[in-house]
Amino acid sequence: MNKTILITGGAGFIGSHVVRLFVNSYPEYRIVNLDALTYAGNLENLTDIQDAPNYIFEKADITDAAHITRLFEQYKFDGVIHLAAESHVDRSIIDPNAFIMTNVMGTANLLNAARTLWKDNMDGKRFYHVSTDEVYGSLGEEGFFLETTPYDPQSPYSASKAASDHLVRAYGNTYHLPFVLTNCSNNYGPNHFPEKLIPLFINNIVNKKPLPVYGDGKYTRDWLYVIDHARAIDMVFHKGRNGETYNIGGFNEWQNIALVKLLCEKMDAKLGRNPGESAELITYIKDRPGHDRRYAIDANKINKELGWYPSVTFEEGLSKTIDWYMDNQEWLDHVTSGDYKKYYETQYTHR
Ligand code: NAD
Ligand code: TYD
User: Fold this and answer.
1) Is the model's pTM score more than 0.70?
2) What is the DSSP secondary-structure string of 237-286?
């Protein structure tokens, strides 16, 4: 094996798809998946590749600087793809500190460890920071986020991600740490924790539970199938220019309420229910505080420079996603037991 690549957060939603893609596509790389296995991390996401000869799992918390340093000394990573994060806006409103610790301090610990390990020879090394479009703030009805759009984060989650992005660029500028950074729009697909809009609503539709739409439901997001995000990460890791930022998006904007109605329609058909039955579960509830109105990504730079474009249509991706959840009830049962119930009550009762 000619390279050792660290992937952080590889037991989570997007990370598990990235780990699978790298383990399967690059037998010549040793892939080390580092994850603290928080509520969002689940090794069941990776059972198909867990015994691959080029795969290693390390349970570690990126806020534990000493542990991170030891792992960098042990494995002498050639590259880092950093996805580990606290990732849910609603949880960041309940407990911002966890986000500041993991997203800011955790990223700083990784940057320090990489800088120390690579200080004498940065050739061929790369720190890839995976970030979000939410750092750009909220759009009105017009316009798109470009790589040059000024940062204007509005939630504790996006502020902590923005801080981590600034740190990565500052280490690039100050210490010449070789880095690339991407800001991606909302992902959806298999293995998505059922606290985010699409998997939460699929699960609630199956169980005939209310579908809690925040505010007027006219908030807009740009949705990308998770496998296409993983493909983009692969391309940027291997072909992206050093020190560059690339926006990644689905060219696929939806108002929440329109998306929810489409989901209901598709699920009525798949579940053999009467048309309109699931839509009756739609319940408008109190808005998220500081709710960003619209996100929309201009992903033309990555398209023009690297030839990346989403390969899965929304129609196809949504259908595959629904099928995956309907076929993986055991996975859902595992992740929705215990702490999930407490979170659900805090977030949705009395609103
Ligand atoms: P996720 O919440 O599903 O997974 C996060 C993973 O990080 C989990 O496996 C968790 O155990 C791990 N983790 C959390 N804290 C940790 C810590 N202190 N130490 C080690 N591991 C820790 O998140 P996701 O949706 O897969 O997002 C992955 C990355 O992509 C994040 O950086 C997120 O900001 C970014 N992103 C997500 C989206 C999206 O739509 N989900 C869009 C753009 C960017
Ligand atoms: P979410 O999946 O949490 O992603 P993000 O906030 O990072 O974009 O939410 C997507 C959109 O759906 C967002 O506008 C908030 C809205 N939403 C609801 O209306 N109800 C819900 O229960 C959830 C989780 C989200």
Assistant:
1) yes
2) HHHSPTT-EEEE--S-EEEHHHHHHHHHHHHHHHHTPPTTTGGGGEEEEP
Ligand 2 centroid, distance to 5 Cα (angstroms): 32
Pocket flag, ligand 1, residue 106 (CB < 6 Å): yes
- Amino acid identity of residue 235, one-letter, is M
For ligand 1, is residue 41 a contact (CB within 6 Å)?
Answer: yes
Specify the residue with its C-alpha closest to ligand 2, atom 20: 213
Query: Residue 8 in contact with residue 83, Cβ under 8 Å?
Result: yes
Q: What is the pLDDT of residues 56-91, one digit of tens each?
A: 999 999 999 999 999 999 999 999 999 999 999 999
**How far, in Å, from the CA of 74 to the mean position of ligand 1?**
24
Average pLDDT value for the chain: 97
Q: What is the pLDDT of residues 200-230, one digit of tens each?
A: 999 999 999 999 999 999 999 999 999 999 9
Give, rounded to a whole angstrom, the gap between the first and last alpha carbons of the chain: 54
pLDDT tens per residue, range 12-41:
999 999 999 999 999 999 999 999 999 999
CATH class of the 3-187+224-248 domain in this structure: alpha beta
